[in-house]
Amino acid sequence: MNIDGTLDEAYERLHRTGPEFEGWLSNHGPMAVESMVRRGHARQVHRWLDRYTRRLDDRPRGTSPLTTDGWRTALGDPQRLGDWLVFFEREVTEQPWRTVLETWWPRLLPGIAAGATHGVIRTGHAVHALLDHEDGPRLTELGQALGYWAARWQRVPSAPPSGTADPASALAGVPRVPDQSAGINHRLDQLTSLTSWPTALAELRPATDAGQARKLLADLTTAASEYYLPNAHGSPVMLVHAATAPMAVLRTLPALPSTQWVMSLHAAWAAAAAVTAAYAPAAPTPRHSLPSAPESADEVFDLAVRHQDEHVIKLADTCLDVHQHTGHPDALAAVIRATDLIDEF
């Protein structure tokens, strides 16, 4: 089977659909199929899409073309989603995609909460695919990912790391927002008035150079993946993004100049901490009640694909990378927990 061809075919099917459906839900199709193809499940992709695309809406039309000088007023305006898609489709065809990414990454990073972090996650998957092979459908996918991020751009209150805590300790110290009764925007809005929020963000030890930033970002991804295991019941779906968002940033680093790596760590940390603050449970599940990891990592991704839920597939993709680099069994057990808590597709 032509693996590159399968992914490109899947992208072409998905590019007829919009980045959102049912008002604001994120289209996870491009992220899930990229993971499935890369993990050796290309044969399942089109069958999975046959079911998934029934839920999706058509791609939105643009209303007023954006220009390279007038984009600021449209940043974070979901009504301009169609315009942003057209804008970035043009950008990635008129200049090298790495140039586009280098230009827009610092502009978009402060709004990393966009679409419940799905803007950066979709971008990370697109970059991962382009680093493997560059062609038209993959360039289009990067354009759609960046356009979605720009349209849903949303700030998270941030503070630069200045403490001594490792990522796992810093994440464990993140305070919960007081009202967890509504959606993510309501929860993130509470961070501004949460007096302990800046202190919690500052607890993470800082990176003094690009190499340290990459190491801390990898450790953050590991910490968030393992945090999911005992805390997933807070929100089995939403807490997935505390791990998949920093993984998306980590996977994008090779395509960025090293001068942007420290700012990437700061944004990823703010995003992971914000999702944790918004959805962490009052108490973790006792260790004796948690699932254990299977012996085979491949078995975990097979299970995720059989489960079919897009969040389970994305989490499995992240956790397998964590396990590959750390050998920590809790990363695999986190995926088992997700299959237990998230309804099958």
Automatic annotation (TrEMBL):
The entry's keywords:
Oxidoreductase
Is Oxidoreductase included in the keywords of this UniProt record? yes
- Which InterPro entries does the record match to this protein? Questin_oxidase-like
- Source species, please? Streptomyces sporangiiformans
Q: What is the lineage of its organism?
A: Bacteria, Bacillati, Actinomycetota, Actinomycetes, Kitasatosporales
Instruction: Indicate what this protein is called per its UniProt record.
Output: Questin oxidase family protein
A molecular function (GO) held by this record is: oxidoreductase activity
